[in-house]
Write a structure and sequence with these properties.
The structure is a homodimer of 376-residue chains. Chain A has 2 domains: 124 residues, Aspartate Aminotransferase, domain 1; 242 residues, Type I PLP-dependent aspartate aminotransferase-like (Major domain) (Aspartate Aminotransferase, domain 2), CATH 3.40.640.10. Helix content of chain A is 43%, strand content 16%. In chain A, the strands form 4 sheets. A 7-stranded mixed sheet of chain A has the order 2-10-9-8-5-3-4, with helices on both faces. In chain A, strands 11-12-15-14 form a 4-stranded antiparallel sheet, with helices on one face. The mean pLDDT of chain A is 97. At the A-B interface, α1, α3, α4 and α9 of A face α1, α3, α4 and α9 of B.
Chain lengths: 376, 376
């Protein structure tokens, strides 16, 4: 295999037409030409978020937009509920605490989704809570949370509902407005299939009310500056111009296919990959598997990091390993963004060959057969 | 003229070989391949900054790194001196105030550089000051400040010396270590000739001492997280991978030519452009003109924005207009990054033609002749 297959949960492969669009001579950002691109990109994003709220674009990693979702709506001493079911839920808690916010953690076992009832109980017990912060797809555990159900619970309260949709958007079902999400955070290098460097926040009217009284210090990520610049189809600080140009092309592609079709396609690839793993005797790590990324336990005697390394060096397939205490125990394969059926099937083939090389025995071809059963 | 000439002080043109390098299929950032690129890029940057300090890379606009230079070393209630000689000096003050820092402003007339003696006096009057924040090249007024002289003054005090070198680096002389700079801030889309989206901070030992006791809240821009990740040749949050790949190529090109030669070349272009303007009767706005960008007063009856618009639409030359109260009064032409002699000469030709079209009279060809006298 000389072609390379990037199957990591961010960055995902950037389609060639998007790469070439970004490689054109750069243009200045305070021009009508750029404004038209920026407008189309951000309006297109709203369809992907399924929101009528503005979606603001930051030049930063996803974590920057997570920070924005805290510093813009909270004040020192505020309390929030944070669901910690993996590395990124933990990051929300760390971020809030760095800003002097009191965190009421809801810890769920890695690989499982939180019971909505537990959040309901926590909200009842802590009626002064200013927000419920959670994750759509917890990338570190490849687990999707029931945002719709949690949204139903938060909706009737005074708390904001903030969702880190960084790696779920465009692969897992997500309905910003219908599910009552006040701030959804996203990044560019996952389902949106452009390189990392842009991050996004949708901001609801309810969130704007909180923003009016928020006292946490901020400048670079200050929503109000972005709202003001929005009136001139602009950002307050120089955007990552080439990435916005790529974003425009990417959202155009996604919306041409239709976001529901895009999600269905990635869901099919995820199901196919899981079926393939099961068919060769591997166990899926998550009890609530995401369509954005799949985490897989390696067989007892195989270290996941060895498998990932072998796949990369000898098969040109890049999976991700496990993080924190899952290191060496699971590998992760993404299904979002520019990842297509060819990538999925070739990864399954390579996975089988690599496992064989590591001494694992299974019925040859069973993985690809199971996947093709789903993808026909 | 069908070729386009981007002469704005950021973004500057991105050379074709850098654009094509960034257009290759994306790679994952937690790989040896990427680590080697990241290491080469950041080590190369140190030569351009002329520093032995680490230079940390943020995925953000330049303003993000300006924020980093405040939140990492100061605590609520601290006092700093900020030189306000244009839009970007003002931004430092606004940023500091947003974080509850008391600002002692040194206001200098737009288009002039601050007298070092005034800074000396301010430091003497306010011995508890924690930092002196200033600009290398104030882009809004195309004015270079005497950082060397200010550095001499700050060196003997307890205050940190923080320099916004966003648009000066790579065009105006700059010696991070020799001049006693504790934090130098830079952006990617100016002298470093890649697209916007990356920003940098060099951090001295003295600055690290301040960082140890700093109490301002921070997370995304927290130096300590970058220092820790640096040990693994990594960043704490997913970097703008393609921009780092471009950066590696750009610093390679700059260091191959030699930073002093690069600066001398841009200085020659700047002198040539100023000579051309003078030769056709235009007045340079700044009393301390930068080699990164030149601001030029338009003749009395010509609105600078009309001239900029005409040059863009009919001559494919993009200059920048004036900002704030200079809007309509000056235009700005950059000389840094990917801007070369051809760009400079063609811009002068186009400027002459556009001025003629607007009814301004001057000796035909005098501008190009004066510029060629300098560039031979």
């Amino acid at each position: 295999m000389s072609k390379k297959y990037l199957m990591t949960p961010g960055p995902t492969p950037v389609p060639e037409d998007i790469r070439l669009e970004m490689a054109k001579p750069i243009i200045h950002h305070r021009t009508k030409e750029y404004q038209a691109i920026f407008k189309e990109a951000t309006e297109g994003l709203k369809k992907i978020f399924k929101t009528s709220n503005n979606v603001y674009t930051f030049t930063s990693s996803g974590t920057g937009a997570m920070e924005a979702s805290i510093v813009n709506v909270l004040s020192p001493g505020d309390k929030i509920i944070v669901v910690r079911g993996g590395k990124f839920g933990e990051r929300f808690a760390d971020l809030a605490q760095a800003y002097g916010i009191e965190v009421i953690p809801i810890d769920v076992e890695w690989g499982t989704a939180p019971e909505p009832e537990i959040i309901k109980a926590a909200l009842k017990k802590n009626p002064s809570v200013k927000g419920v912060y959670t994750t759509l797809c917890e990338t570190s555990t490849a687990t999707v949370f029931d945002i719709k159900a949690i949204g139903e619970i938060v909706k009737g309260t005074g708390a904001l509902f903030v969702v880190d949709a960084i790696s779920g958007l465009g692969a897992d079902d997500f309905e910003n407005d219908k599910w009552g999400v006040d701030i959804a955070v996203c990044g560019s290098q996952k389902g949106l299939m452009i390189p990392p460097g842009l991050a996004f926040c949708s901001v609801s009217e309810k969130a704007w009310k909180y923003a009016e009284t928020s006292k946490l210090p901020k400048f670079y990520f200050n929503f109000k500056k972005y709202k003001k610049a929005w009136l001139d189809t602009d950002t307050p600080f120089t955007s990552a111009i080439t990435l916005v140009i790529g974003l425009k092309k990417a959202v155009e592609k996604i919306n041409k296919q239709g976001i529901d079709n895009v999600i269905a396609e990635h869901n099919a690839q995820a199901r196919a990959f899981r079926a393939a793993c099961n068919a060769i005797g591997l166990k899926i790590f998550s009890k609530s598997p995401s369509s954005a990324v799949t985490g897989v336990n390696t067989p007892a005697r195989i270290n996941a990091d060895d498998l990932v390394k072998l796949l990369k060096t000898e098969f040109n397939v890049t999976f991700a390993g496990g993080q924190e205490h899952l290191k060496g125990k699971i590998f992760r394969c993404a299904h979002m963004g520019g990842i297509d059926r060819e990538h999925t099937i070739e990864s399954i083939r390579a996975l089988g060959q690599a496992l064989t090389k590591l001494g694992y025995e299974f019925k040859a071809g069973a993985g690809v057969a199971a996947a093709e059963d789903i993808l026909h």
